[in-house]
Write a structure and sequence with these properties.
Number of helices: 16
Shape: elongated
Helix content: 40-55%
Strand order of the largest sheet: 10-11-3-14
Oligomer: single chain
């Protein structure tokens, strides 16, 4: 038995570096071949990499696969196929429930083993992509359904969050909703959507998750107020937005709403922080890290009794937490040149900012549950381990002492095995929808009747010109340009 214990200990020490290496592999690293193909613009290869990914074939990652596959089809102009994937993803998000199995996997292993349910801003963007796909297919009625579902998503998010200081409304989605209603000829609902979007900015001092209220949104709100004959609202928002409405003639060829999806969303990585458990003068237990950056109370709602907590058992333990790492885009601005006119594309959705901010908003809650989960694991290790107290009972026979030593060695081996398992299984959830852009920009461009040649001039660390051809046939058209570099 002693030989067995020594072998287990030697094996554990030898295995530890390998365990650390494998347990720290992030989702991005595990799907790097797909991500590289995507950034290189080889969408056909990216689709093949997705289809052969063993990780994404797992049921818990089904939603991620659908989101990525839907976006790749969108990038290839396969609008119908894209929505086939997005519709299934949408259904999964709508019917998602936290099962007992998921809770057990999260507590015993790590949140990476749970079913992926999508970030809140990812859920909004599914509606955006579905609507764009429908508009490209000429299916305006289906796009209008997505417009209405944006409202339902907003209500659900407001119910979930409640706190006005957290992400609950998506101003970009409301702007897209207004555009869809306009495309469908529903100017009244378009006005309501633009007004709701403007109110989100106004309620946040004119800036919402890295985006200043777009000048185009101001124009759209005032124009639709005028078209509906809402003169009181027109005057009210002229004052609130500090602008004056300038009525413009309808262009002969209609208008182009041009969305520019630029760069790549941030990827999730893992950060390791060491915590200890302390008890204050009032008897309350709390966790703190070495830098005192976090002070988190022990969550006794987990069912663990404070009477069973020994501080010496929780002197130091590692917590794996997700963090975002930004991917700097090559381009940071764009202007659309149409004839002698130039139209600056305005930022409408800063996905990069949203990702960092929303993770920060929920970090304390996640940290509390993670720390309590890991503390219980550490206490379980300590409970198995034999006591350090010396046995001075002289009445025991030599045979009894040998038997107890064997039992102690076995318990130590089990505790060590549990420690290795806990260390190896501790992993942050580093999954996210990685084909999303860094930032979405947009502009409303008047068209001449007939063929229009528009050049999208990109600037930043690099520069480029992207030609956009569109036939001005009256009414509104919607197009997207993607630059993933």
């Amino acid at each position: 038995m002693f030989l067995l214990f020594k072998n287990i200990k030697s094996w554990a020490i030898a295995l530890l570096p390998l365990v650390m290496l494998t347990s720290c592999a992030t989702y991005n690293q595990q799907v790097q071949s797909y991500y590289s193909s995507l950034r290189e613009g080889d969408y056909t290869k990216a689709a093949k990499e997705l289809d052969k990914s063993k990780l994404l074939k797992k049921n818990r990652n089904r939603l991620l696969y659908l989101l990525e596959r839907g976006k790749v089809c969108h990038l290839m102009g396969q609008w119908d196929s894209s929505n086939t994937y997005f519709n299934e993803a949408d259904l999964l998000m709508e019917t998602a429930r936290t099962s007992a199995k998921d809770i057990a996997l999260g507590n015993l292993l790590n949140p990476m083993m749970q079913t992926y349910k999508a970030e809140d801003f990812e859920k909004y963007l599914v509606h955006y992509y579905k609507a764009i796909n429908y508009l490209q297919l000429g299916e305006t009625d289906d796009a209008l359904v997505e417009a209405r579902r944006i409202s339902l998503r907003t209500y659900a998010q407001e119910d979930k969050v409640g706190n006005k200081d957290k992400y609950k409304d998506d101003a970009f989605s409301l702007m897209v909703q207004g555009i869809i209603y306009e495309k469908g000829g529903d100017v009244n609902n378009a006005f309501i959507s633009y007004r709701n979007a403007a109110n989100v900015f106004l309620d946040n001092q004119g800036k919402y998750y890295g985006i200043d209220i777009p000048e185009q949104l101001k124009k759209d709100l005032l124009r639709t107020a005028d078209q509906n004959g809402f003169m009181d609202e027109l005057g009210r928002y002229e004052r609130l937005l500090n602008t004056t409405y300038q009525k413009e003639e309808k262009p002969a060829g209609g208008e182009l709403i041009l969305f520019w999806e630029n760069g790549s969303a941030p990827v999730k990585a893992q950060q390791d922080i060491w915590f200890s458990l302390f008890k204050d003068a009032g008897g309350a237990f709390f966790f703190t890290d070495a830098n005192n950056s976090f002070t988190v109370p022990f969550d006794f709602s987990s069912g663990y009794s404070r009477d069973n907590i020994k501080l010496e058992d929780l002197r130091s333990f590692r917590v794996a937490l997700p963090k975002y790492e930004a991917v700097a885009p090559a381009y940071t601005g764009a202007a659309a040149l149409a004839g002698s006119q130039s139209f600056k594309l305005e930022p409408a959705e800063d996905v990069n900012n949203l990702a960092f901010a929303t993770l920060k908003e929920r970090m304390l809650k996640e940290l509390s549950s993670t720390l309590t989960r890991l503390a219980i694991k550490k206490l379980a290790e300590a409970a198995i381990r034999p006591s350090d107290k010396k046995d001075n009972d002289k009445s025991k026979t030599e045979e009894q002492r040998k038997k107890e030593k064997k039992e102690e060695a076995a318990r130590e081996a089990i505790a060590l095995g549990l420690q290795i398992f806990n260390f190896a299984s501790e992993k942050a959830d580093t999954r996210n929808w990685q084909s999303l852009p860094h930032t979405i920009y947009y502009a409303r461009i008047p068209l001449q009747a007939g063929e229009n040649q528009i050049n999208l001039q990109l600037s930043g660390r690099a520069s480029a010109s992207v030609p956009v051809k569109v036939n001005g046939r009256g009414g509104m058209q919607v197009m997207t340009v993607n630059t993933i570099r």
